[in-house]
Amino acid sequence: MFARALDRAGLVLLSTLLALVPASLAAGQTASEFSSWLLQYTSGDARADANGDGVLTPADFSAFVQSFSIDRANEGGTLTPDKPDAPRTDWTDLRPSPDSRKIYVSSSGNDSNDGRSPTRPKRTVAAGLRELRTGYPDWLLLKAGDTFYESLSTSWWKRGRSSDEPMVVTRYGEGFRPRLFTGDQSGVSLINDDRREYLAFVGLHFQGDGDSDRTGMNFVGQNISDVLIEDCFVSGYQQGVVIQGFGGRLSDFSLRRNVIVDNNGSTHSQGVYAANTDGLFIEENIFDRNGWTASRGRNATGSLFAHNLYIQRDNTGVVFRNNWTSRASAEGYKSRAGGEVNGNVFLDNPIAVSWGNDGTNDDDRAVTGTINDNLVLGTTDITDSDVRGWGIRVENVAAGEIKRNIVANAQSTWGFGIAVRSERDRGYVRRFVIGGNIVHNHGTGMEIDEDLVLSCTVQNNTLSSRQSGEALFDLRRGTQANLLIRDNSYRHLASGRPFEDGPDFLNFTEWRATNDASASYLFDTFVNEDATMDDYARSIGMSSASQLYQMLRAQRRGNWNTDLTTPAIRAYFREAFSYR
After folding, report:
1. pLDDT-derived band of residue 69, with 50, 70 and 90 as boundaries?
2. How far is residue 571's CA from residue 573's CA, in Å, rounded to a whole number?
3. Which residues, 6+ apart, have CB-to-CB distance to 121 below 8 Å?
4. Alpha carbon distance 244, 253 (integer Å)
5. Average pLDDT, rounded, for the chain
6. Is 489 within 8 Å of 521 (Cβ atoms)?
7. Which residue has the higher pLDDT, 466 or 448?
8. Burial level of 20, CB count in 10 A (0-12/13-18/19+)?
């Protein structure tokens, strides 16, 4: 049972709201489904948690009404291409093969049925799974809106035919993703050494009990390759998704448009953990509040070692593109493996991006890649006593660049916007460019440790602050730097000497004379340098960032709002940080 915030007045209010549901929605079976939801709510049933925040409150009713209405308008069938009026068309186009066996499962079915039709569904997931043939492009279809109190599999061993003909587990019919409440078991585990490849898990909701040490989707071992995870919701586990080669390497994993939130319970909990894997593609997902327990607060549960994503150094071919990652325990995105980090939004994380931080200066561990066109807002602290406020930090780089990012308006004043630094003075940076970025009101704007720099150019950046005591640039002097600083713009509206050059504090004229001869002072102001996510939410008709968080968690196929995607959000803030 979920905790619920419901008193007698609240129950009367919900009953009144139910009576006001539009007739177009409340007719026939729809009215029955609304009544079923209200019964679930009043009994504390977790199935009524429509906004996915782990607690039952009246806010779940509005989320249920909105999502239900959109489902009825937009969804239907299985994974056929989107309707012409759908906002996006680039979901993975999965289609059964002529010889695919399609097995249907519904919580109102019967395991004595053959499962070959929606009118003859199996009742349990386990019974449906037994009908799939390994090596075939078979489909297991769970009825949308149904709830199953079982795992998908605790020891998955089957595979599809090829990349073009995978084995697919997905949903059928209209409504919410089918929910698998897995209790103290993992949602799905591939932990043996059988050959498992050509698999697609699409449109499923895995819900843990929040108390066990289990994993939502667990891919550990060897002989696992070519796996698609798309449009899944994973919450309530100690680890959300684990992809880890053990005894061999894994390969070719795609995570697309999933919602991975509120996975916690350990000082080392992760939304996603990946190791020993070749080819890791992570695109357009929502990661929120992994690694700590919101109901207890950061001071009780925040941990330096728990993140929204932790990508280990032994991964290759990592792409992290157009994702939303927010409110992590520590790091919004930690990639020791480097790779592409482009077009993402990072909000209210203690550390937004930590990249290439291998902890060594070994050449064979130096990373390559790009950190471009990201938005970093509101970096905070892990706990009141464990302060951070770090934007983008890199070390141990063979070649790469940080370009066109906006890093702005930190909540913590202890950190930095962009930094080349290491906690242990290791990890050299080579052939690196930091260019065209905007850093505003973010602790120390930019920090460079010369002892780590073998070759680096810092050019055409804008460093701005109104905060007294914040440095625009902290240059930590060393003995071996090949560091070029040029053509940057600076603005500091507080009095003082906002440049740190080793032990010295310099004003703009002194900084220009000693370090950045082509520097310019920025007299222009930004269109809206105080822009917040609340402002963006209001610009698209929402009340606040809190509602935006709620609707991000409701993103799914058939209910995919392009206003909540990172290109739209970044465009708004790019305009806010343009010059008047």
Report:
1. very low
2. 6
3. 104, 105, 106, 108, 109, 110, 113, 115, 143
4. 11
5. 88
6. yes
7. 448
8. exposed
